[in-house]
Request: fold
Amino acid sequence: MGSYILKRLISAVPVLFGITVIVFLIMSMIPGDPATAILGSYATPENVEKLNRDLGLDKPLVQRYFIWLGNLLTGDFGRSFSLNRPVLDEILERFSATLVLAGTSFVLCAILGILAGAISAARQYGLADKLITLVVLIGISIPSFFLGMMMILIFAVKLKWLPVSGMYAIYGGGDLPDLINHLIMPASALAAVATGVIARMSRSAMLEVLRQDYIRTARAKGVRERRVLMGHALRAAMVSIIPVLGIQAGFVLSGAVYIEMVFQWPGVGRMLVDAILKRDLLLVQGGVVFVAACYVLFNIAVDVAQSLLDPRIKT
Reply:
């Protein structure tokens, strides 16, 4: 297992390298002069030239990339000009909020999706299967940001059950119940599409396992149906479900960007949008690379979990 994990970590190095290249090139191709955008009304030719020199923007593109990459490898993500603080400090502070939102959404979609898929497969073509399929199709079809806005309109504006935005109440609050109250709508909206995808894939995986001979043998021996489903079928189906969970984890993490904007959640997604509008290049580059690295590491963890269930994967 140790050699397998090491092999997966080594294979992630070129992926991360490619991500840094793509992110740097995309930011470099954005039209306009970053120094002019930063200075605004103070963008005199002398000030623009001085800021370009201070930021290293007067150097060739390749040289700028390797300077930035070298700093990344030493843990120096640069300094945000718009916030006047180290980029890594800002990312870590914001990432904790994103982790709460994305983590809660992922737990919701994983539990609900797997349970819905298992129930749907166990009651194939029955009423429960048809109802779950209908709900899943509706959930997959509605964009998360639109669902979020509708939830705000219904539960916050009309019914006044939940707060409109933010992570905590402006006045008072700040405790766990206050956080949960603010988390219900954004986490549910973010988890909706992923729940539907996981439910569909779980149903397919469960149906394939339920057709196997050893399942028929277990039923013929008189094993309880619940034990057959949960102890045998679901465990075997998890080998096929876990990769789907890894993909949906990336979807949830990337989807947090627009959900954070809809609900004004103080996470990395909202930080990146603000940084793009302010042309804060180092903050955007550092934020995207950090999130991408987290996604790569999570996929490695998913592969390791899958190999524990099916040792043949390591060979």
Residues 225-263 form the longest helix (39 residues).
